[in-house]
Structure formats: C-alpha cells, structure tokens
Please model this.
Amino acid sequence: MTKPGFGKRLTMGAILLLAASPLAQAQQSEGPQKAGKPINAGDVLSGELSALRLRAMKPGESAYQITSEPRRLPPPGGLCNLETGPETFQLVTSNRAQAAQLKGLLGKQVAVRVDEVTCAQDASQISEAVVTKWSLVKR
Model:
C-alpha cells in the first residue's frame, strides 16, 4: 500500500525536476568561471559597503563588508577554496575613527586600499576573506 498523497508528491517532484533541467543546462552552457584578478598589498578594492551583525561582537564594536568582483589573494590563500576567489571581504576596524568613517558610507560604493588580506578562517568571520589593514580611498 502506498501512503495517501503519494501521487501528488510524485507529480510535484516531476514538475520540479522538469523546471530545474533548463536552469542546469543554462549553467553548463556558460562554461567554467574564470578566477578573479589578483589583489595584493597596495591594490584598491571597491564595491558596495554593508554592515555585519556578529554574535561575537561586544557592545560598541562594528563590522563591515564589501561585496566586490571575485579576486584572488596572494599565496598561500589564493582562491580561499573557491572556484573564482572571494567576492565578500570583511573590513576589520582597528579604532573608532575607522568605524565612524565607514558608518556614513553604508549602502554606497566605496574603495579601500588593501594593506593586509587573508582568507576567512574563524567561525566569526562570515565573509570569504578578511581585510585586516586598509585605508579608505577618496573618490
């Protein structure tokens, strides 16, 4: 005996399978994604700035993230175990002045000069890469 509603679930599964196959074919026809261009110390990283809320943050601390095009990091990090390299970069603020500087730029396109960047390794780092030393570039 079959369970009640078995035919409905089977029909719905078939519909989902048929709907998903054109998407899979479209992704395959795009070809392999290229790794992003490299980013080294002194290079400029630009993208949209957003605020992060982390559970491990103490009162008064702030964390920010830039979403950019994929970039490769210098060795040994390289692609950070990703096909194209990281696209999200967490900006670590070292003082209140840096945090205040970024707070007014939320949701806007920003550019920062990267001095130190690494792949994310801790559970508290939700971005793919972490920029520990940086300076804001005036446009």
